[in-house]
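Annex B.
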Amino acid sequence: MNIGIERLKAETGEDEESDLDEDLEEILKEGLIKRFEYTQELAWNVMKDYSEYQGNTSITGSRDAIRQAFQMGLIVDAKEWMNMLVSRNLTSHTYNSETAEAIHDEITDTYIFLFNAFEKKMSELIHGSQLGLFEE
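Nucleotidyltransferase: predicted structure tokens.
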């Protein structure tokens, strides 16, 4: 119980004078991680939707969507996408400052480039030979 109270004090800045710059940096990191969570969710759902559009209705979750996206050439690094999924699950079920820092670094060092490459590929498909792909 005391450990929980000490962590709460540390997180709220109650145990010492808080440095505004450090607080802002922490808020930005937390915001980036939150944005990562919903961007990752959106990305695998787009993979699933595109796969269904192509006739594959057997995708039941994010792992299936990533595997199928790789097979379809929508992504080039399935292993890193699977690592991203592990990171995403960690952000949902655990809060630990060291884990958060490691995931923040993965986002800025790797995951952002995976998202950008996927977005570029999907944009090419939408604006290229399959114009109007997702229009009703």
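DSSP finds five helices and no strands in the chain. Helices lie at 2-12, 20-53, 62-71, 78-93, 97-127. Further annotation is deferred to the next reporting cycle.
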